Amino acid sequence: MLELTKISKIYQTQGETITALDAVDLTIDTGEFVAIMGRSGSGKSTMLNILGCMDKPTSGHYTLAGQDVSSLDDDALSKIRNDHIGFVFQGFHLLPRLSALENVMVPLRFASPAKQRGGEERAKDLLHQVGLGERLHHMPNEMSGGQIQRVAIARSLINQPAVLLADEPTGNLDSAISQQIIDLLVSLNQGGQTIVMVTHEPDIAENAGRTIHFLDGKIIA
Ligand SMILES: Nc1ncnc2c1ncn2[C@@H]1O[C@H](COP(=O)(O)OP(=O)(O)OP(=O)(O)O)[C@@H](O)[C@H]1O
Ligand SMILES: [Mg+2]
Q1: What residue ranges define each of the domains in the chain, with the CATH number in brackets?
Q2: pLDDT digits over 79-97, tens only?
Q3: How would you classify residue 69: left for phi > 0, otherwise alpha for psi between -120 and 50, otherwise beta?
């Protein structure tokens, strides 16, 4: 489903050239759960941002669900992003004045009409699925960190993305709550959701079907 060929990302900053990704080849199939590991600065987030069409490679080709996205302009990329990509970040980024249900529904505003249909019912179903069926109308300041992260995961799935991308989804959580979040990702994957997750923690990565290790912008294992 995701195919990257010789993807490089080069940053130029005051006289310095940083090769964040160095001719990376990577294929991820539908239904896979892939973990990305590697030390700080090795290119993991850069990779995830390119996979999520949040950022463009300097060179190389990227095909997402059959479409070559490497040459698309910003408008076309944001459309792909809204329709095909779900994102979960380490800091939860819920909107503080909206309830759990309203937060989950925010991405519907940017989706195609076909995806908007039935959105509220889907949002409720997702909140049930992540164990928050009793918390639909709670505000972010009335929920725990793990509950907020589960709302963020439900939100990332509202537009039925082809792939869920998660950058350190358990990074701010204690270990019991981290396990709940990882169990949720595993069960979503068992339901067919394709997932790519960046993590520093080997015991979190172990839950994925495959782990890719980055070093200095290259895949080393
Ligand atoms: N906007 C930018 N401008 C210049 N350099 C950047 C930029 N973004 C990232 N880099 C550099 O690219 C390299 C890869 O960064 P990246 O954020 O992908 O690392 P990472 O593996 O996610 O690290 P961490 O584990 O700390 O999150 C780093 O050397 C970083 O300093
Ligand atoms: Mg990072």
Answers
A1: 2-219 (3.40.50.300)
A2: 888 889 999 987 668 999 9
A3: alpha
- Smallest CA-to-CA distance from 31 within 186, 146, 148, 177 is with 186
Global pTM exceeds 0.70: yes
- Residues 11 and 106: their CA atoms lie apart, in Å, by 32
Nearest 5 degrees, angle CA 178-CA 183-CA 187? 150
d(CA 97, CA 109): 17
Q: Helices then strands (H, E): number in the chain?
A: 8, 10
């709550």: which residue's tokens?
A: 177
Q: Which residue ranges have their beta carbon within 6 Å of ligand 1?
A: 11, 13, 18, 20, 38, 40-46
* Residue closest by Cα to atom 5 of ligand 1: 11
Q: Which residues of the chain have pLDDT under 50?
A: none
